[in-house]
Amino acid sequence: MIAPSILSADFARLAEEAAAVARGEGRPGSDWLHVDVMDGHFVPNLTLGLPVVRSLLAATDIPLDCHLMIEDPDRWAVGYAEAGAHNVTVHVEAAADPVRLAKDIRAAGARAGLSIKPGTPLEPYLDVLRHYDTLLVMSVEPGFGGQSFIPDVLDKVRTARRLVDTGHLKLLVEIDGGINADTIAAAAEAGVDCFVAGSAVYDADDPGRAVERLRQAALAAGHRSEWTAADADGTSSP
Ligand code: DX5
Ligand code: ZN
After folding, report:
1. What's the number of CA atoms in the CB half-sphere (13 Å) around residue 175?
2. If you count Cβ atoms within 10 Å of the first and of the last residue's Cβ in the chain, which end, N or C, has fewer?
3. pLDDT tens digits, 100-138
4. What distance in Å separates the CA atoms of residue 36 and residue 69, rounded to the nearest whole number?
5. 228 lies in a domain?
């Protein structure tokens, strides 16, 4: 799955930028559209919030993948699920009660995602992750697009992949940060299901074509699990 991040898009033309990566003639299009919500506190950058997400939901059919880089997600995350986001991801470093939060997000009709920063280990959260539908492994420090991929995080991807493949966890493994034509193969080999890409898509002359190129590179290098492929249309649950 490919999830372009609109952080690198033109914020004055979001509907057009979403359309540029949607299904088109001969193109399956993006699986999810990744929306980076930053509050200027959890990360040193400020982007957009629920009003913009609501407008995007009305402007595109691509399922929205909301990545909340905010303090106090226990208070704010459910609103994104209620609005109609497909997947709502919170940071484990910010959540006070991540198990309860996952239940609340799911009860509001979305998938629940848990994100971990590059320096955050996976092991302490394995029990918590049983309540989540996606694990978002950050491969840059959250806050800005266009940073370089941190390959060390692939050990966490391999661990998560093994736990999913052996039935101990049931979730999508997603990666975010520095994914481009040079890095996607290594991430795919490590076992990523869903690739977020901001600058590699929206800095390209043809964002729609960039999405398909990334998908081909990931498929050539990586694994493919059946339920992930079925999941991509946003109609089935894991
Ligand atoms: C960074 C964001 C990413 C960002 C990725 O904090 O979470 O989603 O848009 O941008 P690239 O793909 O350019 O690294
Ligand atoms: Zn993100």
Report:
1. 32
2. C
3. 999 999 999 999 999 999 999 999 999 999 999 999 999
4. 7
5. yes
pLDDT score at 224: 60
Q: Is residue 28 part of a domain?
A: yes
Residue 196's domain comprises 2-233
Provide the whole-model pTM. 0.94
Which residue did the predictor score with more confidence, 153 or 236? 153
Question: Which CATH number is 139's domain given?
Answer: 3.20.20.70
Return the sign of the alpha-carbon dihedral for residues 80, 30, 120, 203: negative
Q: What type of residue sits at position 134?
A: T
| The total number of structural domains that make up the chain | 1
Binding residues for a divalent metal cation: 34, 36, 67, 176
Q: Which strand (E) or helix (H) includes residue 88?
A: strand 87-91
- 238 lies in some domain: no
Instruction: Tell me if 222 is assigned to some domain.
Output: yes
Question: Rounded mean pLDDT of 85-94?
Answer: 99
Contact between 142 and 116 under an 8 Å Cβ cutoff? The reply is no
60 CA to centre of ligand 2 in angstroms? 19
First to last CA, the chain: 14
